Amino acid sequence: MRENGQRSNEGIQGLNWVKDDIQIRVEGGQVGSFRRPSAAIRSCTRIFFPLAGVFLLMALIHSKMPCAWEHPYQYQGKWLKGSIHFHTRRHTASMVMSLYQKMGFDFVAPTEWSMYAEDMGSLSKQKDLLVLPASETGWGTKHLLVVGKSKDYLKTLDYSVSMDVKASQAQAPDPYGFDQEVSFPVPAQDPQEVLEAIIKEAKKDDCFVVAAHPHYYANHFSFEQLLRLDNLDAIEIHNSLTERLLALKKKKQGSGSIEGQSHDATKTWDALLSRGKRIWGVAGDDFLDLLLRTPGDSWIMLLANEFTQEGILDSLKNGRFYASTGVNFQQLSAKGRSILVETDRIGLIQFVGKDGALLKSQQGIRSTYRLQGSELYVRVEVEGNDGTRAWSQPFYPRKKG
Known about the structure:
- The chain has 401 residues and is an alpha+beta fold.
- 23% of the residues lie in helices and 30% in strands.
- The chain has eight helices and 22 strands.
- The strands form five sheets. Strands 5, 6, 7, 15, 16, 17, 18, 19, 20 and 21 form a ten-stranded mixed beta sheet that branches.
- The longest helix is centred in the N-terminal third of the chain and has 26 residues.
């Protein structure tokens, strides 16, 4: 035998069974032995190794199976925090932008009303904060957010408008001295015609268009109006300002004063999705004034591979984002027939389907949902134990063939 751990070149001369021992004889007359495994162990190995082979084969087949879900999160990129609905006119634009920057936002889109919209290109050069051009427009109390262009669309479309001051009757009283007449431009033409024309023009400008706070004002969007708006990209399913103002109005005037009004539009979102309208859900803080509240209490988390206006707009249009008031998704994906979810805090994870049906709910930070075969879509909604929330975009079962 060689010393210092070197491999011997001496060959094996013989191998014999002696009861339960195996003896090995090598050149030079040396004999070594090791004990033969017991019958029980030999029996187990005859069962274990074939089973292990079956499980390995099943795992390999499963890993090669195509994903049964179509969803917007199948994308390589970086998560960016953004706000696409807020105002700056009661303060300086640069001050409001700096607040968002300090709160960890990566991009913002100040949505001044179209007649006040201005080019904020100089602000887009702020370090680590991308400012997108945007505006808020519409017909009376039916508002649209247009992200990608600061433009007075009503003027561009040559609509003659009057200013509607009746909107203040549906607005919650401002407890900080800003209870002013709220006026919005009202073209003489039919609301549906105007809204459709704005969306068509905005799409020519390659913009992302959202129906804002669709149930806030008494004279808000009807479901049929939203359903008929072709090329509408998204609906604002949560609006923090309207949540605050409606709560104040309810406290002061009673629940009857806000009948039919809401800051939450998830039921309408589900109704639209259930009618086959593919539309994304966004959350906006709709910040107005620091005396009423600070900005940044609702936002979107967007997946993009390019930190540019073009990259963000592309991800917005393709739904590569989720809406949040605090909950963050650590995992939001699909594998095989399952949707995989993990969040950053303990809460109630819910899987919602057609007509708002609750398909599954589970308390914790992780959950999965397995395709049953009859789903039209499935979206994920999370309510953290701290009261914060998050909403995914819909997952759609892939069509066979």
